[in-house]
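Known limitations

Files may contain more than one protein. Parsers should not assume a single record per file. Below, a two-record file is shown to illustrate correct handling: read the sequence, read the token line, then continue until end of file.
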Amino acid sequence: MHELGVVFHVIKIVEEVVAENELTQVSSVTLELGEVSTVIESYLQDAWKWAVLKRSEHMKEARLIVEKIPAITYCTNCKQKYGTVEHGKICPHCGSEDTYLVQGNEFSIKEIEGC
């Protein structure tokens, strides 16, 4: 389960922001999670609940908010975009396999709320 490692990394970054901004408490962290990223949200939430209690004085009560980013693929043949999860690599408009993912693989910290 690499989600625990991901959570440790997020906690490290948030702790750096806490120090830089002289915060005393973090109430929430919002992550953007791509639909086809390799991170499983339920595992991420479970790892978060355990890790913030064990690894951070400033984040013991912090909620993890996850915003999903839909996976979108672009076809270079017909210049159309389509939902990756629904159709995969083959373009549903023209049948081409000359496609690439334009969004949906992201994992980033969007917002840290604290005082």
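...continuing to the second record:
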Amino acid sequence: MTDLKPTRPVVKWLGGKTSLLPELIAAMPPSWNRYHEPFCGGAALYLALWPTLTGGAALSDACEPLIRAYQALRFDAEEAIDHLYILTKHHTKRGF
């Protein structure tokens, strides 16, 4: 079996949890039924955990273009690129 590299977030998100992953993973309960992340942003924690998730996951965020980008990634890479472009323009206008 090949060792998989950790999946990294597709977008760099303000308030991202990538640097906190060791502490967050250490604080996780030993088991759970379903993973919920109400403010997924770049989804760093989810991506770090997804290989071990057996009960599924529910991700959400208030940023509609971000959610559309994730949905597009799931089903259509070209559409995902379009949504990520829109997301970049949206945040550039807002000064992020």
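Parsers that stop after the first record will miss the second one. For reference, the second record is described as follows. The two ends are 41 Å apart (CA to CA).
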